[in-house]
Amino acid sequence: MPNKVNQHDDYIFNSRLSFQPLISSLKKTISEGKPGAKKLYGDLIEKIESIPELSQSFSDLSLLQPHEEIVEMLLATLFPPAPAENENLYAVALPFKFNVIYSSPSFQSTFLKPGTREVNVPDNIRHSLNHDKLNFAYCLILKKYLAYQSPGFSRTVYPYVNPVTSLTSYFEINVDSRFVDVNPVGEFPTMPENIICKKTNRLMPLEELMEKLPLDKFLFEGLVILKITDVTEQEIISEIKNTLLTTNTFTDASVYRKLQSTMQSLLGMSDIKVGITPFFQMNNHYVYSAIHNSNSIIFKHDEASREKDNVGQCFKDIFKGYNQPVVFEELDKRNIIESESLKLYYEMGARSLILCPLKQNDQLLGLLEIISDVPGKLKSIHIDKIEKAIPLFTLAIEKTIESLDTEVDRVIKENFTAIQPAVEWKFTETAFKHIMDRKKGQDGKIETISFNDVHPLYGAIDIRNSSVERMQAIQLDLIEQLQLVRKVIKKALAEIKFPLLEEIEFKTGKYIDSVTDILLSEDELEVYDFLQHDVVEIFNHLAEARPSLKKEIGQYFEVLDPHKNIIYHHRQEFEESIGRLNDALASFIDQEQIEAQEVFPHYFERYVTDGVDFNIYIGQSITPSKKFDELYLRNMKMWQLKVLTKASRMVHRLKNELPYSLNTTQLILAHSIPISISFRISERKFDVDGAYNTRYEIIKKRIDKVRIKDTNERLTQPGKIAIIYSQPKEASEYQEYIEFLQNRQLLKPGIEKMELEELQGVIGLKALRVDVHYDDVKAEKGIRLSPVTSNQLLSN
Fold first, then answer.
1. Which residues are 137's β-sheet partners?
2. Which residues pair with 15 in a beta bridge?
3. pLDDT by residue (tens digit) across 613-622?
4. Hey, what's the torsion of the CAs at 590, 591, 592, 595, to 10 degrees?
C-alpha cells in the first residue's frame, strides 16, 4: 500500500479544469449587490460564457491557448495587484496536479520547469507533498458527502535546497480549494462504516482509505489557488531554537555544523563562517578549555589562544554598556589598528565581520562571530535577520554554563570540602580541568591545589585551664550525687539491717574520698558504673519493699538529669559557658573577617575547641587578579592583633554574664618568611609543603603551653596578649602595632620582652607580652569594641 501512496498523481486523480466554480462565486458576489462587483466582473463573465469550450470542464490545456488573454483577466481577479518588488509567489493549477495555468513571474522563475507549465517538485519533498494532497482530497470528499468538518485550504511548510548554493530555504504552500467541486464517477461508491472514528473524529489511515474508497471513483473539477510564502527566517529560527535547546552543549561538532549551516541559510550566504566563542567566568575568574573553544573563530589564532584573558578583556571593552551586534563591513589595515582582536581576525583572512554579544545581566557570556573573506559582504541589513537568533545562542551558553557549574560543584563536593570564596577560583579551575581531561579521554587525575609564597598568620584564643575547670565541675556533680546516695542509705540502715546496704554505704564513702582528691579517668568510670547499676538496683528494690523510703528515693531520682541519669548541673553550667563563649568569639571573628577580606582577599580558617584559633594565608598566588603589596600583609597583622585585643575585652565583659566564670589567653605566632601550602584531599584541608615550612607547623603545635625561660611561668596569661617570634625584625614590626593600639587605649602601656624555653626540635624563640586595657569595657556597646576599621588602619 505505501507504494500506492507514492504513485504519480496523474494516475491517482481524476482531475479536470473548470472555471464554473469561480464564475459562480463571482455571480454570487454580483447578486449580493456589492459595490462595483457588476462593473468589474459583468462583462468578463459574459465573454467567458460566450466561449463554449471554457464553459465546461476539460483536461486538455491546449484549449486555453486561443483564449489566454480572457483567461488571464478572469484569474487575475483572484489576486490583488502589488508592486513588482513586493510580488508574491502564486499560481492557479488543476486540482491536485503539478500543472499550472496561471502564475506570477516570480513563481514561474522559481518553481516551473523552463518552457513548461509543470511545477519542478524537488525529490526530497515529493513524497510528503503527494501524501498531503491525498489527505486533502479525502477531506474534500468527506466534507461534501459526510459533512466532515475540514477547512477548504491547507498550509504546509516544505524545505527547498537550492541546487546552486546548497542553501536550504523554507516555503509555506497554501492550497485554496474553494473553487473545486467533487463528484462521483458513475454510481456513488459505498462509504466504509468506520471511515471516521466516532470517538476521536479522526479519519481512517490513508493506506486503508485508498483501499476501501479509491480516488478514481471521484472526479475533481475546478481550479486550486497556490500561494507560496518564504518562511525561511521563521523556520531557521525555530530550527536553531530546537537545536540549541535539545542539546546539552553547543560544543558538539555535529551540533556546531548544523548551526553553521542554518545560519548560512538564514543569511542566504554559503561562503560565510560562523563561530561561537564562550567566555566562561566562575568566581570572577575566566576559565578556558579546548573543548568549549573548539567552535570559536578568534581562538583558532595562536596569539589569541596564548593571550585568552587579554582577548576576553578586549571584547568586554568593545561591548561595555552596548548590547547590540556590531558590523565591520570592510576590515582593512586602517580600521584594525584600534583593536587587537580585529587585527587577529584580519590575520586569519576575515575582510567582513559581524560580532554579536551574548549577554546576561550586562555580563558578556560569549560572542557569535560571522565572518567573510570578501570585503563588504556583511552589512547592517544582515543584523536584522540574525537578531531573533541572538537570544537563543545566549540561552544556550547560559544552559552550558549552568550545566558546567553543576558538574564543577559535584567534583568539588566529591573531592574537596566547603571552599572559601578567596580560593574558590582555584578549586573551580582545577575541577574544570579535571572535567575537560575526562571528556578528552585522559585519566582525569585531579591536580594538587597549591599556593606558593604565601604569608602565614596564626592566632589563638584559649580558654584558660578548661580541662581543670571541666574536671572540677565533674567532681562537684559526683560528690553531690554520692552524698544524696549516702543520705538515703543511712535512713534505710536505720530501719533494717541488711549487709548489702552496709557495702553500698562503704563504697559511697570511699568514692566520695577519691572524687574529692584527684579524679582519674578510670576512677570516674568506676563511680559512674556504681551509680548507674548498683545504686539504681538497690534503690528500686527499697522503693517497693519499704514504702517509708519511697519519698526519699523519689526525690533522689528527681534531681538526676532525665537523659544522662546523673546529676549534671555543674557540668551543664560549665559546658553552657564554654559554648556561649565559643559562639561569641567565633561570631565576632567571622564578622571582623568580612571587613578584612574586602581589603585584600585571603584564605582564612578557624577552629573551635575550648576557644578559637585561626590560620591566615595571604599572598599574590591566592589572589592573582589583584596586585599584592607588603602593605596588605602589614594591615593583616594589625588586624590580627586588634582582633585578639578586642576578643579579650569582649570575654572580660561577658565573664559576669556566664554561669561559670572563664578566662582566656591570647597568642600570636609571628613568621616573616613566606611558605607554600597545598590541599590534602585525604584530610580535606590545607597543609604546608617542604621540610622548612613544616617547622612552622611544629612551632604552632608546641607553643600553646610554652614557658618563659628559666621559670615555671607559662607565657600565655589571662588579660595579656603574647606574640612569639624568632627574628628581631618581627618583634620591631609588632611593637609598632602594639604602640598604635596603646595609643587607642586598647592595650596598656609597657611591653614585656622575654626568652622562651627550648621546645623539642625548636630553639631560640622569644616573645613580647602586653596587657589588655579593660578599664572602659563597660561603657562599650556590643562586641565591636573599637571604631577602628581595617580600612582606617590601612590608611594609617
1. none
2. 220
3. 999 999 999 8
4. 110
Cell of 539: 534503690
Q: Which three cell numbers stand for residue 679?
A: 590541599
Q: What does each C-alpha distance from 583 to 493, 578, 587, 654 come to in angstroms? A: 49, 9, 6, 12
Q: Go through 759-792 and write b for each residue having 16 or more CB atoms within 10 A of its CB, e for each that does not.
A: beebeebbbbbbbbbeeebeeeeebebbebbbee
- How many whole angstroms separate alpha carbon 515 and alpha carbon 641? 42
What is the arrangement of strands in the sheet containing 168-176, beginning at the earlier edge strand? 100-103, 89-93, 224-230, 168-176, 153-161
Alpha carbon 3 to its chain's center: 51
622 contacts 603 by C-beta, under 8 angstroms: yes
Instruction: Return the DSSP state at 79.
Output: S
Across the strands, what pairs with 436?
Answer: none
- What is residue 549's three-state secondary structure? helix
Average pLDDT over every residue of 52-80: 87
Q: Could you give the 3-state DSSP secondary structure of residue 776?
A: coil
Please state, as a whole number, how many other Cβ atoms lie within 10 Å of the Cβ of residue 129.
17
Residues 6+ apart with CB under 8 A from 327: 353, 354, 378, 379, 380, 382, 383
- Mean pLDDT, residues 493-507 taken together: 87
| 534: DSSP letter | I
What cell was used for 782?
Answer: 556590643
Tens-digit pLDDT profile for residues 765-777: 999 999 999 986 5
- Answer yes or no: are the C-beta atoms of 426 and 595 closer than 8 Å: no
Task: Put residue 222 in one of left, alpha, beta given phi > 0 → left and psi -120 to 50 → alpha.
Answer: left
CA angle 96, 99, 100 (to 5 degrees): 105
Cell numbers linked to 689: 609543603
Please report the pLDDT score of residue 5 as a whole number.
47
Kindly state the cell numbers that stand for 684.
Answer: 580535606
Q: Under a CB-based contact definition with an 8 Å cutoff, are residues 366 and 397 in contact? A: yes
Least confident range from 181-190, 465-474, 510-519: namely: 510-519
The DSSP symbol for 530 reads I
For the beta sheet containing 15-17, the strands, ordered from the edge strand earlier in sequence to the opposite edge, are 15-17, 218-222, 180-184
Q: How far apart are CA 600 and CA 593, in angstroms?
A: 11
Q: Report the C-alpha dihedral over residues 476, 477, 482, 488, rounded to 10 degrees.
A: 120
Query: Interior CA angle at 706 toward 700 and 707, to 5°?
Result: 160
Q: The whole model's pTM is what?
A: 0.54
pLDDT tens per residue, range 510-555: 888 888 877 777 778 888 889 989 999 989 988 888 888 889 889 9
Quote the distance between the C-alpha of residue 764 and its chain's center: 53
Q: Where are the beta strands (DSSP E) in 77-152?
A: 89-93, 100-103
Helices 728-743 and 630-654: crossing angle in degrees, nearest 10, is 50
Torsion, CA 124, CA 129, CA 135, CA 138, rounded to 10: -140
